[in-house]
Amino acid sequence: MNRQPRAVQQRKALGRRIRAHRLALGFTSRDVAAQVGTSHSRMTGIETVNQDVLSGTLIDVAEVVGLHVALVGDHHLPLLELTAAEVRELVVAAALWADQSDDTTLHDALAKLTSKESA
Asked: Cross-referenced InterPro entries, in alphabetical order (predicted)?
């Protein structure tokens, strides 16, 4: 099975979504590139699908523009668009669950996350 057409379509969709979020935040592609530590040409390549990039770079770029990359099985899902309010709701729900659980893993992760936000 030739997966190339699907991969190209997904990369184009990712590039469009990253660009739309970047513009909505008022960032230039140079701004995002500087925050991620990559070149402006690499950033442009991500948005226009002119080059493949490392997954770490894609994840870093997505985070800068407020998106998250999710993988399920062997199918790549589009970047998830969550508003700040939706993220807060998820964190609160997870915190409530963590407070009722004997497993401290989630509680520790949430504590670490919230300490970064207040710093």
From this structure: Cro/C1-type_HTH, Lambda_DNA-bd_dom_sf
